[in-house]
Specification:
Layout lengths: L15 H15 L7 E5 L4 E5 L5 H12 L2 H16 L4 E5 L2 E5 L3 E7 L4 E5 L22 E5 L7 H16 L3
Antiparallel strand pairs: 1-2, 3-4, 4-5, 5-6, 6-7
């Protein structure tokens, strides 16, 4: 009766090298990407992955800024600081895989694209813009947006005034 040769049994415990490969593959697969479906946080000896559902909106915004790692992340961080200065009671949210700032309704979003960072004001068409910051989505009846490109100047005072106007509009009776 012929006997078949079976390969030697493998150890159930992976080698350190195999474990490192697996861990880095998991981190790469679950690190933030364009859809930002998950957030990676690392400690000295382990990597923990938290999904959108369990991470706070502020943590997701922090992760987006860090993941960008270029002028767009720096600019998004500056815009966030200006928003918080203009309205200390602002609420940070995470909707549509995008940072959203609200106070009695949505004020604006902070979208990032390859060549621009866009702030879209949900009710921008109803806001006075004496400094002429709005430069995108001008044809709509409701929204207005500001497209920021690399090395564009940021008029922080005018932006603070626009954010305050958005808060006042949201608080006013409809």
């Amino acid at each position: 009766m012929p006997t078949s040769k079976l390969p030697p049994a493998r150890s159930a415990a992976p080698t350190a090298k195999a474990a490192a490969k697996t861990r880095s593959a998991v981190v790469k697969a679950e690190a933030p990407d364009a859809s930002n479906r998950s957030v990676r946080t690392a400690t000295s000896d382990e990597t923990t992955v938290r999904t959108e559902e369990s991470a706070s909106p502020s943590a997701l915004i922090d992760a987006r800024i860090e993941a960008l790692g270029d002028w767009r992340g720096e600019l998004l961080s500056r815009l966030r600081a200006v928003i918080r200065e203009a309205d200390p009671a602002v609420t940070e949210e995470w909707k549509w895989s995008t940072p959203v700032w609200s106070h009695h309704g949505i004020l604006c979003t902070g979208e990032t694209y390859k060549k621009a960072v866009k702030m879209t004001f949900a009710k921008g068409a109803a806001l006075a813009d004496p400094s002429g910051l709005f430069n995108a989505s001008l044809e709509g009846n409701v929204r207005r947006a500001i497209d920021f490109h690399q090395d564009d100047p940021l008029d922080e005072e005018a932006l603070r005034a626009l954010i305050r106007a958005a808060v006042a509009f949201n608080r006013s009776p409809s």
